[in-house]
Input
Amino acid sequence: MIHIMKLQDAPFKMIKEKTKTIELRLYDEKRRKIEPDDIIEFHNIKTEETIKVKVINLYKYPDFTELYKHFDKQSLGYKTEETKNSKNMEQYYSEDEIKKYGVVGIEIIVI
Output
């Protein structure tokens, strides 16, 4: 199955450069349809460029704090000099949404 998702420019570039290998999302109805071996087509919001990735695995957690404990910062999309902080995800998802759905780390590889 092919899934379409939008991405900001910075994480899009990191996925394209193969440094970001875990895409972080709310585990809502749309993401619950994703399974290993599915394809995700990411659309860069800024440039309208697209890239396809294959889903390797899904890692489900109650919140981003728990998810962040299990992955290194580069795989989550942080640069070497940056500090990973699960609170950064609050700019995308509300606390209520996170409590309602939980979160998922989607392990991907560029194809």
Notes: Residues 9-16 form the longest helix (8 residues).
